[in-house]
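Lab meeting prep.
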Amino acid sequence: MKFELPELEYAYNALEPNIDAKTMEIHHSKHHNGYTNNLNNAIEGTELEGKTIEEICKSEGLSGAVRNNGGGFYNHQLFWQIMTPNGGGEPTNEVGSAIVRKYGDFEKFKAEFSKAAATRFGSGWAWLCVNNGELSICSTANQDNPLMQEGCGGKPILCLDVWEHAYYLNYQNKRPDYINSFFNVINWRKVNKLYLEAL
């Protein structure tokens, strides 16, 4: 079965003013769609065809085409899920408690996650993962993700795309402003669900 571009649960303009409609439209319908089509082409007729995207990302010896497009498919699929209109705030559920246990308070978590996103040179992602029941923050280059990398391991439950195509129309070179705005659209109910599933 071929991978399909997931539909968004909200309109392209629903995350404004934090993420503008034009960026969302291009990002979803062009970039993510491209990763989806290229992934299907790259795995067609190989031993990876029919595997889940998680299984593909965890596979050894991936070709460049599968690694880049498989990562692009997986990463964006999670990214759209963990955002929502009228999101943000400080989580008060189980993942909120885990954040306080690990980082001391929400502001310290926010600062550490923001640093991971801001200091990723060039294109890549910042991640919050669950690894053996413990939260961890890391970043990856390009379309890599924690399923692919030792040292940035665990199950991803929150991610932020810091490729320029994710923010440049609205924020230009002001990546820190984009990162700060991202915290206004996080769907903490969804992140909490992913956290509980990863335990």
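Slide two material, second protein:
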Amino acid sequence: MRRLSDATAKIAGKSFERKYIALGRIVKHWSEIVGPKLADKAQPVKIHYRKQKNQKKPLTTLEIATSSADATAMHYQKDLILERINQLFGEQWVSAIRFVAIPSNASLQPMKKRSKNNRTPLTADQKKTLSDMVLSVEDEHMRDRLKEFGEHIIKSEKP
């Protein structure tokens, strides 16, 4: 018998790997793709895949969140944005753009990371429990990452 986590990692990795890596690359280069003025007014939020009959490659649509006024302005630059995105990937990867309206008073500022200095350290009992939970993980790097993730969860649960 094999562990369920082995199979899950393979299945999820193949399904989500390209989607989230692609969205991350788009977010990273967003100001280069749309320009600094529009980068402050809109942001990519989701990538949709739709399989086509008799074709290997699915249709890929990028959702961009922006106000309705900015969506109108960006609509005229849709082809340029698509060209820049596909230039980033080196192929005709994204085939369409869809604008998602957000309220004009909503902020598009990226979420700020919390400072690690503001959190209280784990108790010795919490550290031991966490270490026991990841003890069976053979890969040292993965074990350390899981510990770090567990610490984050425990600390975020505190009031």
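Talking points for slide two:
The chain has a mean pLDDT of 78.
The beta strands are 42-50, 59-66, 96-101.
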